[in-house]
Fold this sequence. Notes:
Order of helices and strands: HHHHHH
Shape: elongated
Number of helices: 6
Largest sheet: none
Number of domains: 2
Helix content: over 70%
Radius of gyration: 22 Å
Distance between the termini: 44 Å
Low-confidence stretches: none
Amino acid sequence: MKLSEVAKLYKHIKKHFPFFDASVDRAKDDHTRYLKDFPADTAWENIDQHILTETVTPQIAHIRGRLGDQIDSKRSKDQAAEYVAQLQEWAASDSPPPPGYWEDVRRKLRGESQ
């Protein structure tokens, strides 16, 4: 994030959380230490979600969110979308799944490893 983006984000936070310190000194310090390498769009998403769901004043951890968890969530959603696309492709071609597919599904449902 650029310093100007941090300042704009802090101004937005201050509108919703009056006790939030949105001073120029804090914005400069936080930018240098914690936010200069962080994507602005992710910070905005995290703060918007925080505003919708929390009553406590946000801190750096809320702004940064759990980026690792967010990346894992996105990867899982992408894999699910690929799987659904594969199922739709099979349904459109009116052909059965590949050999061993249902056995593999049953094994996974039983919790057995491969």
